[in-house]
Amino acid sequence: MRNKILVVGPPGSGKLTMLKELMGTVSPVTGSHAGIIEEYHIKNKYYEARVGVWVDEFLLEGDSTQLSADRIEGLVSLPEWTESFCSNEAKEVRDSIKAVVFTLRHGSDAAHLEPQLKVLEQLVGMLDNDNWDGSLICLQKGHVSPELAAQLDAVCFDYGFEYISHLVSEQGETTGYDRLQEAIEVLGWETQDEAKETPVPDPILTSPTLMARSSPSLHASSFDARSLSLSPADSDMLKGLLNDDLDNFQNIFDKLKIARNSNLSDEQRTRLANDLAEQLIGGEVPGH
């Protein structure tokens, strides 16, 4: 069952601010925000649920020269991000998404937004099938004029997104983070009892966009054992294995780097270790 929220946008578009407004607090983050995983606890008079929130990022034109290297490490353009998220490898993650929150930088206008939503049509098409009852939301960072808000709202409507800004409604309608909370909570989320019975895909193991946080390429000729603290003998052994099965060890190497460099929970590290062990020995790990 779909029980996850995907929050995606360029750096500086208010993703962490949104999480803080919804959940009260988020874990400290340095560098890229791609790969952040949080849990949103929904509790109202109708139901109680814990919803996973996955955060990802992409680069807009000019970001690579205007932002620090650590802030954009591993990030790609929106077309590349969309292509990877629509790949077969990311299907399990896609199939768990019930809401997409696309965050807009302060100062975004219709001329910049429309090409971005056009690129996202491929992903929306994969989500928006007969079985999908989710929601597509564009969340504006900062305040906008009524004229600009109307233009952005029209573009979002054309592509099936609800536009949410912090502009005060003259009709008394809910706006900003209050409206975002309403839009999320009105969806049919699994209750806590139902969620216990449903296996949850791990984006760390299945999403190519999160895997992109690690080394983008690996070649036997340039393998650096120091990045994994390997001895020279172990390094030579891995080089030989890489020559035999480069694709498999590219995947394993990426996951090892994620394990070393990410703020994973103990449970996620255990799943990652079991997954790597299966790949290395070619069989199932006892108890996994």
From TrEMBL:
Keywords: Chromosomal rearrangement. Coiled coil: none annotated. GO terms for molecular function: protein-macromolecule adaptor activity. It comes from the Eukaryota. GO terms for biological process: vesicle-mediated transport. Transmembrane segments: none annotated. Involved in gross chromosomal rearrangements (GCRs) and telomere healing. Belongs to the IRC6 family. This is Increased recombination centers protein 6. It comes from Yarrowia lipolytica (strain CLIB 122 / E 150) (Yeast).
